[in-house]
Amino acid sequence: MTQDQNDPVRGERRFLSRRSVLTTMGALPVITAATSVLGATEAAAATAAINPSAQRQTIRGFGGMAHAAWIGDLTAAQRETAFGTGEGRLGFSILRIPVGESQADFGRDLATAQRAAELGVTVFASPWNPPASMIETFNRNGQTNAKRLRYDQYAAYAQHLNSFSTYMRNNGVNLYAISVQNEPDYAHDWTWWTSTEMVKFLRENAGSINTRVIAPESFQYVKSMSDPILNDSTALANVDIIGAHLYGTSYSNFSYPLFKQKGAGKDLWMTEVYYPNSTDSADTWPQALDVGEHMHRAMVDAEFQAYVWWYIRRSYGPMREDGQLSKRGAIMAQFARFVRPGYVRIDATANPASNVYVSAYRSGDTVVIVAINKGTSAVSQQFTVANATSASVSSWVTDGSRNVAAQAATSMSNGSLTVTLPARSMTTFVTSLSGGSSPSPSPVISPTPSPTPSPSASPSGGTGTGPRVAYTMNSWNSGFTASISITNTGTSTINGWTLSFTLPSGQSITSGWNATYSPSSGQVSAANVSYNGTIAPGATVDIGFQATHTGNTAEPTAFTLNGVPCTVV
Hints:
TAT_signal; alpha/beta; globular
């Protein structure tokens, strides 16, 4: 991605703009703000069946790009808005930054990356160009000054990427991954790569890169760029994440059968997009709902594990230039604030009615349902959650007049929930499979604590039986997520709690939800946050965290709640 027409002259494209190309391809719909028209009759939709046992992809998160060199850095307040999870925040859990072309440029985005890392956000980086000394020009289809990486500089380029990740790590930011090249197949303003060149680099040099590797980040999810990687076992072994951009990509081209066939153990990320365009204000309504459908299809049709916007702060982006959420941003927050890293998408009826889109996600006993109604009439929608009991349901809605607005609590009865989806709206529902525990209104990332009630002296309620803890771990090559369920087996209510356990050697928490974690390794204490400090008799609270490991994926062997030993199941 290069700068758009709203950006300073310094970086404007000298060739056909992406917008012109996409318009020529007919990829971008022409949409204008429409007057809201509510239908007189509430339509009924088919039941949306949700199966928590049918698990799909693990979600890594939602986020956006910071690029200080082109549009200026985020301010301190804007970083909190971007990565915070409370009211008025985007809840982004992923930050993408550029790789500097020289070491003098490495620190441009450091301040934002450091704050993101402090908040447990996943940070990854993409290069636009190698250092100038590594580049040669050539004639590419009449472009006489086209740039490519010199073939004798491949090893040096891998070390350049290592130098950037080392610089970031030495300054408190452990990059989750680094890309080989931003948009190698649409590089009029930066460095071109063919699929053959990409495979050669991956085969011979990517193995020396000291963090996860992303490739190929094709401009339009062009499969001819990524197919050769999937079909070459050596190149594939040196890639951790297949990355793609979705500029002008039709929904019919979202699915990727070859990845499903050969991508076992690899992630699939959508690493850049703006949608549906960069010309309209991000507050244009109901056009912003198109972003919701786009995200829905990226999760359901494409089965991406990450969804990353272009500039975080821009007139067409999730954050306006004044630092406030736009309508597009509110739509993104309906996913990002509630579907946190480590959640798993589960089966749900994706399109129970015309213009209604549903997806669902699970972490432990917590289930999140995201429902979009693009129609001009309200819809009565029933959800059925397999094997669920009765439980309270929290919900948040964005429509023409509201932005991620909390709604009155309702309830699910024996796994069935019927609600009204307002016309032209997006609603996120959070509930529990087992009932009893309060749904999480907004997952909390350490180190920002919430007020903690004074813990009760005995969480067992004086019955002599300890609380029950279930610990579920989902690990990959250098990280894992852990879901913890805490059940009050006593006869008295627990008012305020701290769960203590020892993480095995080499494990370190990077982010968490529904509790405040301290410290990040060794003997850890997880304290309740403001909305889940009370655990009624028989009730369960679900918490969790994401962590790194150095090869040891053992689980903690013992837990105490307010000093009382727990039964581990």
